[in-house]
Structure formats: structure tokens, C-alpha cells
Write a structure and sequence with these properties.
It is built from two helices and eight strands; from the N terminus they run E-E-E-E-H-E-E-E-H-E. The chain has about 120 residues and is α+β, with helices and mostly antiparallel strands. A five-stranded mixed β-barrel has the order 1-2-3-6-5.
Length: about 120
Amino acid sequence: MYKYRAEYLSNYDGDTITFMADLGFKTFQKIRVRLIGVNTEEIRNMKNSVAEKIELGFKAKNFVQETLSTAEIIIIKTRKDKTGTFGRYLADVLYVPKGTNQEVSLSKILLNEGLAVEYKR
């Protein structure tokens, strides 16, 4: 496992997030990650999509945006060169909410809030 401190940039949906990762020695890289172990609903109209599922997808997207944009610290944990579909790095994302010293798993929070389901490859 590799750990990188990161700055949140944006997220496409609840499980696809773009960060500026601090690789050390004043070297930074913009990376897109796919959360390991969870799946959120899609936000675009897909064939046979149900409006409630799309709405849940937007709730997950907004939750991630609000959570990470206000986090004190963000840590990305990934395996070297481990990528999934669309070239995204598969990663666990941990964050420290402002005013606390406690690391929180974004995936676990999404599951607890009912915004994601477990996803095993």
C-alpha cells in the first residue's frame, strides 16, 4: 500500500474522485481514483435508469463533494500501478474532518449513510 496526502479537486459521482496528490519532494500529480469496495448509483441517464436511482447518485456525489471540500486532511491509500476500468487508480480515501483528529474512511461513511453498496471485484 502507498499513502499520499491529497487535495480534493472534484468528483464525477460518489465513487470517482479527482485529487492533486502530493508525491513528495515538491512533486504533485493530478489523479483520478475509484473507491475500493463500494459502488454508488450513476448520475447520468442510462438505459432503463430509474429516476430514484439517479437522484441517489446525485445525493452521493454531493455528499462526497461537501465532505472532502471541508476536510482538514485527505489521505489516498493505493497499490502501485493498480488501476481499474477507465484507468482510474483503485484507492481507499481517508479524511480528517475539521475540528477532529480522527481518520474516517469515505467508503464506510457512504455505506453507513445508505449512499453506496458494497462492491467486490
